[in-house]
């Protein structure tokens, strides 16, 4: 983090994501070590997004905590809010119950005055959620996911100066290219075989 901060200078926002990979001790330790580098939020620091431990970690660090991209059920977001366990909620429309449930989660977050941002990639699907609610936030332009989505979909918007302009065509405004999907399906690592 020190090297990255030095490379990008003071004006670029930096985020850290542990993908639910740490226990409370190590997440606390890491948070304390990276606090000097101006981290905008620490995403999913703790295993299973443990609500009680998230609240404990939040009390121990001055880095804002974000989580939710790996949550599928609305009550989990309710519990995070009620227990003051996150500074930012991250419902993801491809994981957290689609647009219908993510709208409810966005509403819950707004009632608690907690912002929402996208985590967990799928930016072109999640941009519609964030553009469609008054408390919409950041969309994670996840490089690997974007490269994959470009192979599947036609009509994806291209970011300009960090902003995505939403399509005005019906639905999502982009569609799978069936021919290309058929070709991708022939690859030896297709049908889930590429994921060890
Ligand atoms: Mg993430």
Could you characterize what this model shows?
This protein has about 200 residues and is of the alpha/beta class. It has a single domain (about 1-140), classed as Enolase-like C-terminal domain (TIM Barrel), CATH 3.20.20.120. About 40% of the residues lie in helices and about 10% in strands. The strands form two sheets. The protein has a four-stranded parallel sheet with strand order 1-2-3-4, with helices on one face. Helix 4 (about 75-80) packs parallel to helix 5 (about 100-110). The radius of gyration is 18 Å and the shape is globular. The protein starts with a helix and ends in an 11-residue tail after the last helix. The relative contact order is 0.09. It binds magnesium ion. The site of magnesium ion (MG) has 7 residues, from loops.
Please tell me how large the radius of gyration is. 18 Å
Residue windows where pLDDT falls under 50 for at least 5 positions: none
CATH third-tier fold name: TIM Barrel
Shape: globular
Strand order in space, largest sheet: 1-2-3-4
The CATH level-2 architecture is identified as Alpha-Beta Barrel
Number of helices: 8
The mean pLDDT is 96
- DSSP summary, beta strand count: 6
CATH superfamily: Enolase-like C-terminal domain
Helices and strands, in order, run as: HEHEHEHEHHHEEH
Number of domains: 1
Our measurement of the CA-to-CA distance between the termini, rounded to an integer number of angstroms, reads 29 Å
Major sheet attributes: 4 strands, parallel
Helix content: 40-55%
CATH top level class name:
Alpha Beta
What share of the residues does DSSP label as strand, in percent?
5-15%
């Amino acid at each position: 983090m020190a090297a990255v901060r030095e490379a990008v200078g003071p004006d670029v926002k930096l985020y850290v994501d542990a993908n639910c990979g740490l226990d409370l001790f190590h997440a606390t330790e890491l948070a304390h070590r990276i606090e000097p580098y101006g981290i905008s939020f620490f995403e999913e620091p703790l295993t299973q997004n443990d609500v009680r431990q998230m609240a404990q970690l939040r009390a121990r660090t001055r880095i804002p905590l974000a989580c939710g991209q790996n949550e599928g059920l609305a009550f989990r977001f309710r519990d995070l809010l009620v227990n003051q366990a996150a500074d930012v909620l991250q419902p993801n429309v491809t994981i957290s119950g689609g647009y219908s449930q993510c709208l409810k989660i966005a509403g819950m977050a707004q009632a608690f005055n907690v912002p929402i941002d996208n985590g967990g990639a799928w930016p072109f699907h999640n941009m519609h959620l964030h553009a469609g609610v008054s408390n919409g936030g950041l969309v994670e332009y996840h490089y690997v996911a974007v490269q994959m989505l470009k192979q599947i979909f036609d009509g994806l918007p291209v970011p300009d100066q960090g902003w995505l302009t939403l399509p005005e065509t019906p639905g999502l405004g982009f569609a799978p290219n069936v021919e290309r999907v058929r070709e991708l399906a022939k690859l030896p690592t297709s049908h889930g075989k590429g994921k060890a």
